[in-house]
Amino acid sequence: MLYYLFEYLEKQFQVPGATLFGFLTFRAALAMILSLLISTIYGKRIIRFLQKKQMGETIRDLGLEGQAQKAGTPTMGGIIIILATLIPVLLLAKLENIYVVLLIVTTLWMGVIGFIDDYLKKFKNDKEGLKGRFKVLGQVGLGIIVGATLFFHNDVTMKEKLPIEEQRVLLAANPNIEASKLFQDEIKSTKTTIPFVKGNEFDYAKLITWISPSLEKYAWIIFILISIFIITAVSNGANLSDGIDGLAAGTSAIIVLTLGIFAWVSGNIIFSEYLNIMYIPRVEEITIYIAAFVGALIGFLWYNTYPAQVFMGDTGSLTIGGIIAVIAIAVRKEWLIPVLCGIFLAENLSVVMQVSWFKYTKKKYGEGRRIFKMSPLHHHYQKLGYHESKIVTRFWIVGILLAILSIVTLKIR
């Protein structure tokens, strides 16, 4: 809203400083600062409100050190993250941008699912909360919305570079030619980025066109199914990572900041040309959303680091995972998720491996056996005697290394 206000003031009255709001970097910086202030200043008030409403977490006895002390800590703190993200976005982003709209819808959609889950656990004394099938149904619904929008919406396009020979001719005629002249017109495409591959791109339509070229018109089905899978997997991974103080929020901040870099360079035709990566018009606007989201996560960490004064609950963890997944799909970097979201992947796999091995050995030997002392993975290290602060810090370090590796894929083919 402020963006439109200052745009109007600049056009009508040439107000000094109003042009700053036309710069993406200025609005992104302002969004991060504003979200930090909201999450730290008003976060305390929200925590007090949750305490008054007796939103304390009920802790199951899992035999973990320091676990009993967490009982009564307010949960549902994901509300802080959601509010601290949406307010700066509504003030500073271009709200007609389809990518921004999708992220706002994702935040509200997943936030509501998580809120219902937390509400049922606390006020309805339902330990399971929202049934798993309803969570999955909500994730599938969001996947359909996101996949269909990104496939069919007219503003979701990409630009491919001209053939090499044409580029050479143009550069030979004018070495200082604008980067935009080296790209073709905007097109609809189901192409995505594949890391560590020389060609660096893959068209989802090829998954069915090898059968018959006429099947290309059904590529939207493949794209939507992949969107559903990614959103479901990442949101569940973030949910599993929310087990010890500061782990989910800190890891997610690293991931989202990295995706912000991808969004910025992918939406900038000069950087896209220099890095030889896919140019996606208008996607750079989600940098505003990402900046606000990172600020909200860091601000939430002010109260969530050990010893936590508030837990995010499913209100926060499901929302975080959904947002990360949608950003990755929007900037066509979803195949980097196993690397960039390696912490989430490890948490997911630890649970799958533990449960599968336990069931298999119980059936074969009559007694279930375990691979880890406990799952998800962070609890395994707690059982080994590591303090949760050390576990969280080391997971953050691993997350930073994975983020650097992900950024390096821009040039390593």
TrEMBL record:
Its main location: membrane. One of its GO terms (cellular component) is plasma membrane. It catalyses: UDP-N-acetyl-alpha-D-muramoyl-L-alanyl-gamma-D-glutamyl-meso-2,6-diaminopimeloyl-D-alanyl-D-alanine + di-trans,octa-cis-undecaprenyl phosphate = di-trans,octa-cis-undecaprenyl diphospho-N-acetyl-alpha-D-muramoyl-L-alanyl-D-glutamyl-meso-2,6-diaminopimeloyl-D-alanyl-D-alanine + UMP. Mg(2+) binds at N239, D314. Keywords: Cell cycle, Cell division, Cell membrane, Cell shape, Cell wall biogenesis/degradation, Magnesium, Membrane, Metal-binding, Peptidoglycan synthesis, Transferase, Transmembrane, Transmembrane helix. One of its GO terms (molecular function) is metal ion binding. It is a multi-pass membrane protein. It comes from the Bacteria. Its cofactor is Mg(2+). GO terms for biological process: cell division; cell wall organization; peptidoglycan biosynthetic process; regulation of cell shape. It is found in: Cell membrane; Membrane. Catalyzes the initial step of the lipid cycle reactions in the biosynthesis of the cell wall peptidoglycan: transfers peptidoglycan precursor phospho-MurNAc-pentapeptide from UDP-MurNAc-pentapeptide onto the lipid carrier undecaprenyl phosphate, yielding undecaprenyl-pyrophosphoryl-MurNAc-pentapeptide, known as lipid I. This is Phospho-N-acetylmuramoyl-pentapeptide-transferase. It comes from Wocania arenilitoris.
